[in-house]
Amino acid sequence: MEDGKAYIDESLCVGCGECVEICPFKAIIPSKPWTTEYESLWW
Predict the structure, then answer these.
(1) Phi-psi bin for 19: left (phi > 0), alpha (psi -120 to 50), beta?
(2) How far is CA 38 from CA 6, 13, 20, 34, 43, in A?
(3) How confident is the model at residue 36 (pLDDT cuts 50, 70, 90)?
(4) In 1-43, at which residue ranges do the beta strands (DSSP E only) sit?
(5) Contact 8, 28 (CB under 8 A)
(6) Contact present, 17 and 28 (Cβ < 8 Å)
(7) Structural domain containing residue 13
(8) Of 8, 13, 15, 33, which alpha carbon lies 20 to 30 A from 40's?
(9) pLDDT tens digits for 6-22?
């Protein structure tokens, strides 16, 4: 928490999108698109 707000440490982000999926408030918007590990094998 920083200034009373939760935040994502982008240096630890692997781009899986799990945080977006589980946020009960839908408050997380990715700053860049991500793909799943499975999708990245094909694209």
Answers:
(1) alpha
(2) 29, 17, 18, 12, 9
(3) low
(4) none
(5) yes
(6) no
(7) 1-43
(8) 8
(9) 788 888 888 788 888 89
